[in-house]
UniProtKB/TrEMBL annotation:
SUPFAM superfamilies for the chain: NagB/RpiA/CoA transferase-like, Winged helix' DNA-binding domain
Name listed for the protein in its UniProt record: DeoR/GlpR family DNA-binding transcription regulator
Top-rank lineage group of the source organism: Bacteria
UniProt KW Cell cycle keyword: no
Gene Ontology MF, one: DNA binding
Length: 268
C-alpha cells in the first residue's frame, strides 16, 4: 500500500473514535508497526492529527463518537477483489421472490451489483445498499427505524420496535469482525444487539467473510458456529479453518476470483 493511501486510511480512522492505536492502524493498512509509527509522526508534524502514547487522535475530534467499527470508507479499500467474488456467490444463492436480510457492511454492499438482475424483498440496515437497490433494481427494499451512524452508513436501534420483527427472511447475509471456533465476533455491543435481533428473523444465516477474518478476533461474541448455515469465503482459507467449519456442519463455499482479479493478483 502506498504511503498516501496509508495516510488517508489513518486520517479516516482517527475520526471514528477518540484514540486509534498503532495496532488498529496496522490492521487497517497491513503495514508494520514501525511504518505506522512513522506515518503517525509525519501526520503529526503536518498537523493533520495529534500523536499520543500508543496511537493517534484527531486534532478536532467529532462531537458524536460512532460505534466501535471501521468506517465504511476505510473498509471499502480492503480485499476488494475477494469481496466482489464472495458477494457474487452470495447472490447466486438467491431466487426471484425470496425475502432476504442484508446486514450493512462493505462485503455485503458488493451484493448490490448482481442483485440488480433479481426481484427480491430486501430488508437492510445499510443506507448505501438501500439507495443503490432503489435506484438500480426492481427489488422491494425495506429499512428499519433507528439512529443513523454516518461513519458506517448503517441504521441501528437499541429498541425492539424498529420494524425488523415484522419481517421474516429465508436467509440473512452478513459480514463479521472475526470468525473463530467460538463463532462470529463483533466489536461493539450495539452492533451485537442489533445483529442478533436480525439473525432471529431468518431461517438461514449466511456469513460473507474473506479469509483474513479467520485470523481476526474481538472481545464480543455475536453467535455460535451452530447458528451459521453457510460461510462464503475466498481461496485464502486454510485447511484447518475449513475443517473447523466442517466439524460444525457449516456449508462452505469458496468463491473463485473473477478472471481480471486473478490476473491482477498474479501480477502483484
Amino acid at each position: 500500500m502506498l504511503e498516501t493511501e496509508r495516510h488517508r486510511i489513518i486520517l479516516s480512522a482517527v475520526q471514528e473514535r477518540p484514540v486509534v492505536t498503532v495496532a488498529d492502524c496496522c490492521a487497517l493498512t497491513g503495514a508494520s508497526e514501525a511504518t505506522v509509527r512513522r506515518d503517525i509522526a509525519q501526520l503529526h508534524v503536518a498537523k493533520k492529527l495529534r500523536r499520543v502514547r500508543g496511537g493517534a487522535e484527531a486534532i478536532a475530534p467529532p462531537q458524536f463518537v460512532g460505534i466501535n467499527a471501521r468506517p465504511f470508507a476505510v473498509n471499502q479499500t480492503i480485499n476488494i477483489a475477494q469481496k466482489r467474488a464472495i458477494a457474487q456467490a452470495a447472490v447466486d444463492l438467491c431466487e426471484d421472490g425470496d425475502a432476504i436480510i442484508i446486514n450493512g457492511g462493505t462485503t455485503t454492499f458488493q451484493m448490490v451489483h448482481p442483485l440488480t438482475t433479481k426481484r427480491l424483498q430486501v430488508f437492510t440496515n445499510s443506507f448505501p445498499i438501500a439507495e443503490h437497490l432503489l435506484k438500480q433494481s426492481k427489488n422491494t427494499v425495506l429499512l428499519p427505524a433507528g439512529a443513523i451512524y454516518r461513519e458506517q452508513n448503517i441504521i441501528l436501534s437499541p429498541f425492539d420496535a424498529d420494524g425488523s420483527n415484522h419481517f421474516h427472511a429465508r436467509r440473512m447475509f452478513m459480514g463479521c469482525r472475526g470468525l473463530g471456533p467460538l463463532g462470529l465476533m463483533e466489536g461493539d455491543p450495539l452492533l451485537v444487539q442489533a445483529e442478533q435481533k436480525l439473525i432471529g428473523q431468518a431461517d438461514e444465516l449466511v456469513v460473507l467473510a474473506d479469509s483474513s477474518k479467520f485470523r481476526q478476533r474481538s472481545s464480543l461474541l455475536l453467535c455460535p458456529l451452530t447458528r451459521i448455515h453457510t460461510v462464503i469465503t475466498d481461496d485464502g482459507i486454510t485447511d484447518r479453518e475449513a475443517q473447523m467449519l466442517q466439524a460444525a456442519e457449516i456449508r462452505l463455499i469458496v468463491a473463485p476470483l473473477a478472471a481480471t482479479d486473478r490476473k491482477t493478483r498474479a501480477q502483484e
